[in-house]
Structures are given as structure tokens and as C-alpha cells.
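User: Sequence in, structure out. Go.
Assistant: Echoing your sequence, followed by the C-alpha cells.
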Amino acid sequence: MTIVDWRDVPSEVVQGLLLAERRRALDELHWDLAPSFKTVEQARQRGELPGLVLQDRHGRPVGWAFYLLANRLLQIGGLQAPTASGLRLLLDCVLASAEAQMAQGVSCFLQATSPSLTSALTRWRFDLHRHQYLEASLTNEWPLADASLLRPLVLSDAPELVRLLARSYAGERVARAFAPNARLEEWAQYTGQLLNGPAVGIWRPDLSLAMSSTEGHLVGAVVVTEVARGIAHVAQVAVDPAHRRQGLGRRLVTVAGTIAAAEGAKRLTLMVSEENGSALALYRSLGFAPRGHFLHGVRGPVPRTLNGVTIRATGGLKAIA
């Protein structure tokens, strides 16, 4: 197998790989990755997004990966290969990249399409946490809830939403998936991605809800996006610690689902950490069922040398195993 820098690969080859992944995600998760992949391809063509293409012995593209160095953290945005050895080789080359050598740590949030991904990440000593991807049907059986005191979440709520997320996730290990160091500026960046980017679907302010205290501070919010036609997605639900155990989280999700159904959505999806037992119980009581799972992985700096892979630069990265 051979790996080449995807910035040196014709656009139609990369687009073919991404199209195959888009079709798989639509089939398995009811998630259309087209908006995200449009952003990815634009960044690749500008030379701003490093990535790799895995080729078989006949030179045919069979796998890919892309990654980004931001704030001294290497973020692996995608990693796909049809075999365990292909996954290992891709991961080895990502972690041997110049960007990885400059990083103070590595993170990933990837769909676990096969046990081989877990094995490849474990081999590199990633600290792994599973997140379930759940889906519920927005049928006549969808429960009703009291919508009083709830209002639409608007863009001007963004600063309050940043602070609400920081408070609601304070001290929780799962927060590393959103704000690796729990800094307020990281929550601000994450909130900006929720409301302005396609990473977790396109934000639907008409489906998103908030609840404020008498002082005007957010005490609860649900951010809903659209991940495909007819598929609404709960990208975030947060309740201030001082307002928990009052059923607010259930109300936010239930009312958002009711509004989404009225707007034509057929299904509601979300992701939840398997470590969050109370949230899992809540979602199951609302009729959510698993469709897949994702792996959030983190690790420290990678070694300066990589054994078992020969890497040479000939018009870009090339690795042969």
C-alpha cells in the first residue's frame, strides 16, 4: 500500500472518496456530510488542509485521512480505510507528519465503522471514550411537553451560551471533546462552529430553544441543526447546574422535537457519551435508539520517530509499507 499527500491528488479522486463516505453516512446515520465536505474540499484545494490518500498496489485510491494543527493541537478530522493495516498505515503517517511533530497533543472524533479503528488508536495509546449516535422517530407517539418560559435561541444569545456551556460541563471529562482545556475561549470557538459552521449540521434557529432566568442569564438551551433533509439533530443541550433535576433538559429536547416535526422533520438525532448514564436514560425514555457510535480520543505529543514506516518526500509525502 502507498500513501500520498492528497493535495497532490487530482480533485476528482478526492471527491470520489468523499462522495463514497457521504453515501455511507447517509445510509448508516441519516447524516448528509455534503456541507462539511464542501468546506473540506475548498480548504484542500487552497492547500490549507493536510490530508492523505491510501492507494492499493495497483495505485487505486482506497482510503483517506485529513487533519489540522490548531492551537498546538493536532485534530484528526477523518480516517477511513477498508482494512486494519490500511487504517494503521494512515494513522502512522498522520502522526509522522510535520504538523504532528509540532503539536502538544492529538485529538480525534471519528465514527467507529469497524473494530480496527479502536485497535489502531489504542496502539497509539489514545485515551478513548465512546459516544452513542441515537435516533428517534418524530411520529404521533412523540411526547408533548410544557413550552412555557421557553423562547427561540437567537444569535445574540451566543455569549450567554458560551458561559452556559462552560458552567454545565465544568469538571466533566466529556468536555474535552468540545473544549480540550476547558478554557472560555475554547467554548467560544466551539459555539461559533455550532452556530456558523457545517460540522454538526446547519444551525436551525427556528428549532433551537432557550430559557432565561429573571436576571436575563441563560439557564438552559438546546441547539438544533439539520443534518439531512427531514433529519433534525440535537447538537447541544445544556442546563445550568443550579437548575438541574427539574426536568428542563427533557422539556428542551421534547419541545424542540415537537417544533421540528411541525416543520417537517421525520427524525431527531443526537450524540451522547456512554459515560453519561442519566442522559442515556433520558433519551431512551423518549424513544431514542442507537444507530452507531463515535470515538473521542486524546493523547499527548507523539514521538519524534516512527518505526515500521518508510517516509520519503518526492513531490509531497509518500509512505510505503
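User: And one key feature?
Assistant: Residues 131 and 272 are 5 Å apart (CA to CA).
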